[in-house]
Inverse folding.
């Protein structure tokens, strides 16, 4: 796999980015976004793996990181974190290791029994994971490791996801960019082809700002909806209206330490934000 560093380096400081990631790797194979802390965790390690994979770079001491992710799959671990560990193992070429731990997933997530994540625990977006978020992560992880849901399980998941259909998107009280993408990605991964949503287009900001918002016709833009909207446009094979403006928005989010924050106004760097920023630049750069 060739490195994408040169291409992405046209838009952001790639050297400081790489230093930011490398300096936060620890001897146990895990990563922690605060370099002075030896508090390695699944979230940071997963995103470190995703960053290296996106850039087409070799992951340092890969076997140690595989061992770290496998150790993280425990009965008490939140289902989103378990799904991250499974997908991370797949990226590292250890799908067989991931397959050995599916029994733990099924104690928390079993569509045939109407269980859409028991004891949800930690979330990427909301403090406590929503069942839709957990579904998105589990379906994505199972796809990565090569596990195929049965036809009945797929139908059960589809029926569950469709409960969140809200106008032209998906959400609880109203459609949001995050939940709309998570729902659409889940349905596509299972082989369904839902109608296109205009939600992502309605949340695109050009002109002075750039980026995308969580709900239409609002300000300011943040990194999370910008990432999910970019993924949504890619999923629907659509072109962003102002890709250069979006890249400029992302450039403004890079901190002096090389990592990225979530908004122009404030925020510390972390691995989640950094991966999302890179993914947006990678997508938008195709249209420049």
């Amino acid at each position: 796999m060739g490195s994408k560093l040169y291409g992405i380096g046209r838009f952001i400081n790639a050297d400081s980015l790489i230093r930011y990631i490398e300096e936060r790797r620890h001897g146990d194979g895990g990563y922690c976004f605060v370099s002075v802390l030896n508090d390695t965790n699944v979230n940071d390690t997963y995103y470190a793996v995703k960053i290296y994979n996106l850039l087409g770079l070799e992951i340092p001491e890969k076997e140690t990181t595989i061992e770290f992710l496998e150790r993280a799959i425990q009965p008490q671990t939140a289902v989103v974190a378990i799904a991250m560990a499974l997908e991370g193992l797949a990226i590292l070429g250890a799908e067989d290791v991931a397959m050995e731990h599916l029994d733990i997933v099924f104690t928390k997530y079993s569509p045939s029994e109407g269980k859409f994540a028991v004891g949800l625990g930690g979330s990427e977006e909301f403090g406590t994971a929503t069942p839709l978020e957990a579904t998105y992560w589990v379906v994505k992880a199972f796809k990565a490791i090569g596990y195929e849901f049965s036809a009945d399980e797929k139908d059960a998941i589809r029926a569950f996801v469709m409960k969140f259909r809200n106008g032209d998107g998906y959400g609880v009280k109203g459609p949001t960019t995050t939940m709309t993408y998570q729902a659409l990605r889940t349905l596509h991964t299972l082989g369904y082809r839902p109608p296109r949503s205009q939600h992502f287009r309605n949340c695109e900001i050009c002109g002075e700002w750039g980026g995308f918002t969580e709900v239409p016709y609002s300000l300011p833009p943040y990194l999370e909806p910008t990432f999910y909207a970019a993924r949504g446009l890619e999923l629907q094979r659509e072109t962003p209206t102002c890709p250069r403006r979006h890249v400029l928005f992302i450039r403004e989010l890079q901190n002096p330490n090389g990592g990225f924050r979530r908004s122009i106004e404030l925020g510390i760097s972390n691995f989640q934000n950094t991966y999302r920023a890179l993914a947006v630049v990678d997508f938008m750069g195709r249209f420049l």
About this structure: The radius of gyration is 18 Å.
